[in-house]
Amino acid sequence: MLLFSRVRRFALLTSIVAALLVAGAAPVAAADPPTQLQGVLSVAHNQKGDPWKHYAKGPDMFDCVGFVWFAFNQNGLKDMIGGYRGVGAYYNWFKERGLVFTDASQAKPGDMIIWGQNKHIGIYLGPDQAISALINPYGVSVHPIRKSWIGMGVKGYLRVDLER
């Protein structure tokens, strides 16, 4: 009888300790949802290596316009960039809203960047870095912004008012 009583007391004590541990445990915080910028850049980087194809807008082949649109559209942000447009139409849409600038020091990751006379568009990543869909063999790549690398000077940066 004494052994049974000790076993019951031990089981009761173990149950109380376990209950206290569970009750006192700090709740696990849910991860913060990604910002709009993080979402756009995540989609963009996930396409690295996908080939270039004229007029393609995904999900596994892109031209420059289709790539930019895809990265924003996959995050429900296509209206933030004026929908699907050509390079010149993006430039004009942003210019009408006062969102075009030429000073690279004002550019923020997630802004769009245009080269040449509306010849190419990509997403600005940071100082001298962009991601865009380049003619093969490069396809979607992270690359320098400078003219010596891409063969065209920067025409302007388009401010995208992303949650950063």
CATH top level is Alpha Beta
User: Which word captures the global form?
Assistant: globular
Q: What is the CATH architecture assignment?
A: Alpha-Beta Complex
How widely separated are the two ends?
A: 68 Å
Average pLDDT for all residues: 88
Q: What is the tally of beta strands?
A: 6
The CATH superfamily bears the name: endopeptidase domain like (from Nostoc punctiforme)
Helix and strand string, N-terminal first?
HHHHEEEEEHE
Count of alpha and pi helical runs: 5
Uncertain spans: 17-22
Radius of gyration: 26 Å
- Please list the strands of the largest sheet in the order they lie side by side: 1-6-2-3-4-5
Q: What do we call the CATH topology?
A: endopeptidase fold (from Nostoc punctiforme)
Structural class call reads alpha+beta
How big a fraction of the residues is strand?
15-25%
What is the helical fraction, as a range of percent?
25-40%
Major sheet: size, sense and barrel closure?
A: 6 strands, antiparallel
The figure for the number of domains is 1
